[in-house]
Amino acid sequence: MNETSGGTGGAGHDVAARIQTRLDEIARPDYDDPARTNLTGLDWLVFFGFLLVCAVGAVLWGY
Amino acid sequence: MATEQTEEFVAAPSKKEALFGTIPVTREERVWGFFDFSWVMIGLAIATWAFLIGGDVVYFLGLKAGIAAMVVGNAIGVGVVVVSVLGDTKYGLEHFSLVRAVFGRHGIKPLIYIVNFLVCIGWSGILAVMFGRAAVNVVNQLADTSYDGDHFLVALFGLVALFSAWLVVVKGPVALKWFNRIAAPGLSVVIVVMLFFLFRDNSWSDFTAIEPLEPFGDPLLDFVMVVEFSIAGGLSWWPAQGNLSRLARTQRSAMWATIVGLFVVTIIAQTVGLMAALVYEDADPTSWMIPLTGAGFGIVILLWIGFANITTMSVQAYQVCVAMRQESVKWLSNMSWPLLVGIFLGLSSLLLIKPSAVYDNFFQFLYWISVAYAPIIGIVLVDYFLLRRQTLDLRAIFSHKKGDPYDFWGGWNIAAFIGVAVGSAVYILLLNPVSLEQYVPGFEYMTASVPALVSGGLVYLVLTQLWVKRAGKGGYGS
């Protein structure tokens, strides 16, 4: 396979060094990523409410 | 597709490391929005394993109670898995990198190289066997032969499936995304076709009138047995889900895409499996298709289901190989990606030596997954949400220095392992995974997985508060 890197270290790159470089980027206090936003209370309510309604509804209907 | 693959191969080393290794991904490297991630999840959901789990419900329950039990079990199993991997999405972490904050940098090694590795080899082997059996059913139909489930052709076709999965995985997550874009819609069609043929010859009341094959006779016990293996099926996706979720763009999209695929579509696929199993009084999905739809459709469906199994095997192989590339194990982190994937899938092929041995022990395999994963997931949930309030020290996760926050005791968090031991013991006391005996009462009301998850998490919480924190370990503060 034409795998020039992909974690092989074939190009002489050190994985730990790359992680440190990456950490310098993503561990900055001003690093912006939508994935860092935690779920809101409403998210949790809808999520657990959906699963609970499905489970209770299924038991009442099928058991 | 060609453009994306080209982009992948000319990507900077760090980007490729992030996609194939343990480097955290950045915002730009998150390749899956809600739509793509949903298709990945749907591709996972409509593999033959869903038909197999749904089919095996036939031993305990009829249609209505079976659907209800599968909904309850999947709501619990998938629900806790979804929540427990939100940290992977938040920080873009490879799953077991995140777990270092709980078990320590060396403590994750038994989880990766024993638990996760064996689970994934088992899954890949089972799916390869089922691919082989599906292919042999096609051969039997076309050549008018009657090869059984242990015929060498099953193993041969299983090897073809493993090799095909290798071809997909070496291309990485972009290839997985495109593979799923093809497989998942086709599988959706398969389910619709199966439903059409099932309802063409049977009414709803026909289905609900069919009795289960081998129930215990206690309705509650039969119900909870199905709930239990549905939970186990959901929990079994924990490592894969962690590694896939890190590529989602937001926590919300990761959560709901998983619910769409691993909960909603899984229930549909398992229900179709249960209906077919009730009609044909056989739990083996590969035996339904030709009698159900006729030779022409049946062969096409079997081939497509085999194709879907390759999708699932690919996802499993991707996540386990990414996990194995922890940078603290240099010879693995520096190993060629195709070679690493080849070794994993090659070991899975050992299960093809006697296909029925794997197939006939499918449920013991599922229960053993819960014995291991339920307490681990409980501990991760307690640590991430209660003890750390969803905030991790990224530098400490990758630190190898003694005395750093997640160093614990020489890289091992003993409290976490005590929690796992207690949780696993609780599971086995409530349900012996081999004999299905219950040594203490309560399984019918609690399942075994839920008490194992809760007890493991509680023991960990108490030990951390009373011992780990006071010892100044774990970076919890005072």
Keywords:
heterodimer, A: 63 residues, mainly alpha, 2 helices, 54% helix, 0% strand, B: 478 residues, Hydantoin permease, globular, disordered N terminus
Structure explained in plain terms:
- The complex is a heterodimer of chains A (63) and B (478).
- Chain A has 63 residues and is mainly α.
- Chain A folds into 2 domains: 1-32, no CATH class; 37-63.
- Chain A is 54% helix and 0% strand.
- In chain B, helix 8 packs antiparallel against helix 15 (289-324), helix 9 (152-169) packs across helix 15 and helix 21 (414-430) runs antiparallel to helix 23.
- Chain B is globular, with a radius of gyration of 22 Å.
- The N and C termini of chain B lie far apart (52 Å).
- Chains A and B meet through helix 1 and helix 2 of A and helix 2, helix 5, helix 6 and helix 14 of B.
Please report the first level of CATH classification, the CATH class of chain B: Mainly Alpha
Counting helices, strands and paired strands, the structural category of chain A is: mainly alpha
The CATH architecture of chain B: Orthogonal Bundle
The helix/strand series of chain A, from N terminus to C terminus, equals HH
State which percent range the strand residues of chain A make up: under 5%
The tally of domains of chain A stands at 2
* C-alpha Rg of chain A (nearest Å): 22 Å
What would the principal axes of the Cα set say about the shape of chain B? globular
Rg measurement of chain B, Å: 22 Å
Largest binding interface between chains: A-B, 44 and 57 residues
Q: What coarse outline of chain A follows from CA principal-axis ratios? A: elongated
